[in-house]
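Quick review question:
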């Protein structure tokens, strides 16, 4: 796995107590969609897009964070003719067609998985998350589509996600069209850029996927992700303290019991 000094998207998805600003969410989504668009242009399917496989890395001294797609162990060239003999991926991220026979896997499975990734990033939950592949398939097959969660109040954001989460792969949006969706291009989106994004854009050109980008709407400020990163470290340190405390108490109880036996 590539080195990433700011963890993965899970560092955000698993911390609902810290708000994610709309301009940070939009920039993260733009970066990731740009990446999957480039990947799909090469004819490949990733087949295991999920929060754990989107790395966050801040080049030393840059002040910004790159979102990088990682773990290409299941990646393969798209084959629209031959039926697949096995499924790949992580259950809550699997597209509805993954549970059907014959199994023809296209790049659209990545789009659905990315829709679930964004859904999880925003709501901190999955729309469907059954314990086994079989149970997930049964639940999905009973559904007409993913319902809009209360946490997503932006109509354009939900319009984009609903197209990414479309159950019919033939109707599901492609990466190129998702990347230029009105959610990213409408006047409100253009106005929703922080002063820090503008400052970072003016200080340096950002290299991303072999393109030099000076558009501040793509920039994720390191300070925004550090809030999640620092809080995560604090939680882990607190857990270690609690575990040490429990260990010490257990040792005391064992010592008391030993002394009682000896008496």
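Suggested answer, residue by residue:
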């Amino acid at each position: 796995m590539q080195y990433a000094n700011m963890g993965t998207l899970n560092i955000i998805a698993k911390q609902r107590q810290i708000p994610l600003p709309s301009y940070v969410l939009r920039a993260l989504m733009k970066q990731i969609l740009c990446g999957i668009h480039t990947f799909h242009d090469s004819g490949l399917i990733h087949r295991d897009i999920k929060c754990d496989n989107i790395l966050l890395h801040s080049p030393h001294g840059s002040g910004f964070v790159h979102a990088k797609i990682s773990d290409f162990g299941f990646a393969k060239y798209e084959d629209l003719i031959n039926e697949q003999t096995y499924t790949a991926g992580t259950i809550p991220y699997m597209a509805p067609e993954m549970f059907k026979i014959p199994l023809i896997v296209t790049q659209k499975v990545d789009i659905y998985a990315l829709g679930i990734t964004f859904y999880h990033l925003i709501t901190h939950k999955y729309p469907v998350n059954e314990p086994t592949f079989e149970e997930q398939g049964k639940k999905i097959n009973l559904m007409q589509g993913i319902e809009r969660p209360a946490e997503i109040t932006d109509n354009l954001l939900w319009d984009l996600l609903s197209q990414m989460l479309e159950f019919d792969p033939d109707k599901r949006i492609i990466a190129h069209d998702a990347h230029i969706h009105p959610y990213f291009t409408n006047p409100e989106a253009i106005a929703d850029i922080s002063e820090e994004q503008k400052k970072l854009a003016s200080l340096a050109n950002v290299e991303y996927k072999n393109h030099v980008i000076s558009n501040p709407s793509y920039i994720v400020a390191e300070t925004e992700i550090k809030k999640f990163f620092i809080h995560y470290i604090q939680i882990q340190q607190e857990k270690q303290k609690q575990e040490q405390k429990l260990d010490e108490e257990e040792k005391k109880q064992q010592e008391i019991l030993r002394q009682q036996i000896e008496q």
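Why it works: Strands lie at 44-45, 54-57, 64-69, 76-77, 206-208, 211-213, 220-221. Residues 208-212 have pLDDT under 50 and may be disordered.
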